[in-house]
Amino acid sequence: MSLQTISFALKNTFRKKSIAFISILGIGIGIALMIVISSATISMDKMMTDTLASRVGDVEVTEYGKPPVLSALPENITTIINTIESKDQIKFMSPEIVVNGFTQFTSAFELPSMVNLYARGIDLKNDELFEGPTTRIIDGEIYNDTLEIIVADLVMDIAEKEYPGWLKIGSVIPFQINATYSINLTLTGTYETEENPAALLVEPIFVMSIESARSINSLFLPESFTGFSAVKIRFNSETINKTQTYAEELKELTPKMTVSLLGYFGGTVEDLLLIFDVFSTVISTVSGIAGAMAILVAQLMGVNERLKEFAIMKATGWKNRTIFFEIVLESVVFGIIGSLIGILFGSGLIYTLELALGQSFIKLTWQLILLVLGFGLGIGVISGFLPGLKAARIKPMEVLRSS
Amino acid sequence: MADYIYHDQEIDSDKSNDYIIKVSGLSKLYNEGLPSMVKALDQVSFGIKKGKMITIFGPSGSGKSSLLNILGCMDSATSGSVFLEDIRITELSERELADIRKHMIGFVFQEFLLIPTLTAIENVLLPVIPGGIKKEDRERAMNLLTQVGLKERVKHKPKELSGGEKQRVAIARALINNPKIIYADEPTGNLDTKTGDEIMQLLRNLNQELGVTIVIVSHDPSVWDKTDYLLKLKDGQIDPHKITS
Q: Most Cβ neighbours (<10 Å): which of A279, A352, A362, B32?
């Protein structure tokens, strides 16, 4: 196929400008939709995978059968944990206190549904090992004293929007513990929430010292408690399966413990990703079929109108194969240009969504752009097949004499 | 041997290289074996010498189109043989016929059939597009357009050309591959008398200057006078009483 054949195809593609425009627009809209959904799916996948990767060796133990807020592990829990066979694989541990009944501090104050509104008492040295919230202070400072607290920056952002000026560093705020108790806590700093929103699933929103957490819990616990609610453990593990084997060892210990893998979000998130994947595939397929149909109809109409041209082309020595490829090439031009328009539309939609959502977790990757162009190429080839055959198979003299 | 041959024996025994087209016992049946069978051509034999210009005429249904289709390598015969020079085209594949069309034959049609998106020179170059247009092709196209009197119209698109000019472009297109035969199907059918005469004169000039054999199918008696010979088809056969020169 010569360069002139390609140039000829390009000229013919836009012969019927309105039909070409509508076809390309149709493909573009379908592809834009596909791009947005695929980008979101890829980004969510990546987000989850990154979170999984950074926490693949992390587990958390709590008292067996109890939620973290009611869990009571003995004071020497780390010593007990260190008796497992794979103790050499333990990189570090962080025994922590989950504040009991730490509910939303004002009923009008709403956080995103995926955020767990709970507080923890954390030892600073241990948190540093896990590169936890206290290592990411962006405003103010880490708590020094009992009844001081740091909060995630997203809480500050939301509070600023809802009640401007109400929540700021140094504020003494009456935090509602449960229906009976409230306690004044001083806000000393804010920490940066991990860029990855999935991290919110495993990180506390309010962080304080172990002592503060114990003080709050003592307000409604019947007896003084010197143990811990949970222990975060990081194993030297690169796969979730390996971590799972260590978790099994932990389950054999006494007292019996519930072991959660922090690098595994469980069925809900995976199901969500699966739904996204299926949704994305369905949209892609529908877009592909709709795009291909648009090109097919436009090309069939074009071929019917141009029968005499194909007849003269054949009469002057064009081979069936060349005419077939000529039509397929025209369809491919439709597909590729439609894809490019789709990428532009899609990028615009992504940008708009990012502005609306206030976060940029949707990523338009080069791989996706190449995939979309390949997709356009594919629908061009498929939809050009039938019109190409029709054009190639005409009997020139029949067409020419009938005119 | 005469310019026309009517008998198989004669054409079979002719060993000269004077004949560019040799047709022997050519038959074309449609719907063969069915009650609706039509005998479009019935044992037609004739020959056309190189460099001649002839007109085939006859009433509708006489077999003109079928004959032109087969001579133009665009349809197959039911029986008989057709030679273009020494190539027996009745035995060639579809692909080989396309090659013959490209290298040996040029077509001119009543409706001009130019591609509306292409300029005059691009239309002339249409047959060479699949193989890639070379510099010498462009030069040849330019020379042909000059030869047909369209030197100043090379960049014009068909809608900017008159009927006569379109037919001149079509003739230049037919000549781009330096064919040995031009088949012209009612070349003046869409033109007024004066323009038709000009086109016929152009064809005659090209016939004489380039030595190309021209076979015209036409109902127009004014065309008949301008060719070397006439061949009348009637009911799929050559009418021996209507061969004139």
A: A362
Same domain, A233 and A352: no
Q: Does residue A104 share a domain with residue A37?
A: no
In 3-state terms, what secondary structure has residue B185? strand
Q: Which residue has the tokens 């692909």?
A: B95
Note whether B195 contacts A: Cβ–Cβ < 8 A: no
Same domain, A204 and A172: yes
- Chain-chain contact of B133 with A2 (C-beta, under 8 angstroms): yes
Top residue of B66, B121, B126, B182 to mutate, by most chain A CBs within 10 Å, is B126
Under 8 Å CB-to-CB from B96, ≥6 apart: which residues?
none
Using CB atoms, pick whichever of A2, A316, A318 lies closest to residue B132: A2
Q: Going residue by residue through chain A (403 aa), what tens digit of pLDDT does each one get? A: 677 778 888 777 777 788 888 888 888 888 888 888 877 777 777 777 666 667 788 899 999 998 888 888 999 999 999 999 999 999 999 999 988 766 555 444 555 544 556 789 999 999 999 888 999 999 999 998 888 999 888 888 877 877 787 778 888 877 777 667 778 889 999 998 876 555 666 677 889 999 888 888 887 666 677 889 999 999 998 887 888 899 999 999 999 999 988 776 555 566 777 777 788 788 878 877 887 888 888 888 888 888 888 988 888 888 888 899 989 998 998 889 988 998 888 888 888 887 887 666 566 778 878 888 888 899 889 989 999 999 998 888 778 766 5
Domain end position, chosen among A264, A298, A330: A264
Do residues B193 and B204 make contact, with C-beta atoms less than 8 angstroms apart?
no
Q: Does A309 touch chain B (CB under 8 A)?
A: yes
Say how far apart CA B230 and CA B245 lie, in whole Å. Answer: 7
Pick the last residue of a domain from A218, A233, A264: A264
Looking at CA atoms only, how far is residue B10 from chain A in angstroms? Answer: 30
Task: Cis check for the bond before B116: say yes or no (omega within 30 of 0).
Answer: no
A247 shares its domain with A104: yes
Q: Which residues of B touch A8 (CB under 8 A)?
A: 118, 129
Q: Which residues from B are below 8 Å from A401, CB to CB?
A: 65, 185
Question: Do A330 and A391 reside in the same domain of the chain?
Answer: yes
Tokens of B80: 């008989």
